[in-house]
Amino acid sequence: MDATASGPGEPMIRLSGVGKTYDDGTVAVQEVDLDVAAGEMVCLVGPSGCGKSTTLKMINRLIEPTTGRIFLDGQDVTDADPVELRRGIGYVIQQVGLFPHQRIINNVMTVPLLYGESKATARERARELLDTVGLDPDQYADRYPHQLSGGQRQRVGVARALAANPPVLLMDEPFGAVDPVVRTRLQDEFMRLQRDLGKTVVLVTHDIDEAVRMGNRVAIFAAGGRLAQYATPTELLARPADDFVADFVGSTRGLRRLAVTPLREEHLEPLDGVTGGALGSAIDLDSSLEEALAALLRDDKPMIGVKDGARFVGVLTPAGVHRALRESLR
Ligand SMILES: Nc1ncnc2c1ncn2[C@@H]1O[C@H](COP(=O)(O)OP(=O)(O)OP(=O)(O)O)[C@@H](O)[C@H]1O
Questions:
Q1: Which residues' Cβ are closer than 6 Å to ligand 1?
Q2: CB burial string 164-177: b at 16+ within 10 A, e below
Q3: Does position 7 have pLDDT exceeding 60, yes or no?
Q4: Any transmembrane segments, and where (predicted)?
Q5: Which pLDDT value is given to residue 204?
Q6: At what angle do helices 289-299 and 318-327 cross, to 10 degrees?
Q7: ipTM of the predicted structure?
Q8: Which mutation among 15, 20, 22, 207 tests ligand 1's pocket best, with the greatest number of atoms within 8 A of CB?
Q9: What is the pTM of this model?
């Protein structure tokens, strides 16, 4: 296949044989091939030092690859001007990198101002973006970074990365510095935002749960910068490519599969003839299998009712959960 061909169906990001050997001889990334479709969220995951950040930073040329080529929307960017390139790619890092002595609004306005917007337009845009990431501009715009919680600062980082309206966002451990509860909430919010805005996202994490929860596809890196597997969460958990991946996703990967497998109407049984006493409290059809199984166990009933909005659509039994898991791979 001609990797330079552009056109419909072309990936938004393509890494073709991209590798990095640092000057001291460290092979951080072996030759990696990786396509990311437009609007897709891809998570790079793996143990410490396996080359995830290096791979991410090669996409916006903060680090120069030593081999291979990188295509953005069909264009070879390996020789592009790195500064120009970075303007079209949002970048979010764990430490957020806000200017400590500037108010939140000014931190976000930096980017539209850089693009030559007037102060008034930049301010308006920054306020909209704060609102988009769930921070009330009336309350937060005039604060300084140290007057915000870690999770709030992280949202400002996302707002600033969105300010140039880039089609692509790169995120390096964006939710790493916050506690687990805030982390889950930020993950949920960000997934909703990404779906709404249709951004193409590459996100680095060392947390396999975060990766399979958020990624449409997940790239698992192994020591020495080897791409061990690139697959959907369901494929990855059900069919690890090798022992390293199997070990990394863990012996409880069956449970992880429950979290990433949606419930479907075809896995339900009809309501007919079911007496109220056999039925646990109802769950929504858009639940994951994990939520469904948790509800079954909680109610200690042989089956649970499933609703689509206000309408009962059937009952789920443990056998239905099992069938759903098996069929999720077809
Ligand atoms: N400037 C550098 N010079 C030499 N080696 C480097 C340099 N930067 C990173 N490395 C090495 O390259 C390898 C990959 O580093 P990288 O930061 O990409 O890993 P990572 O998977 O993101 O790790 P972590 O999860 O710990 O952040 C590591 O062995 C690291 O020590």
A1: 22, 24, 26, 28, 46, 48-54, 206
A2: eebbbbbbbbbbbe
A3: no
A4: none
A5: 95
A6: 170
A7: 0.96
A8: 22
A9: 0.83
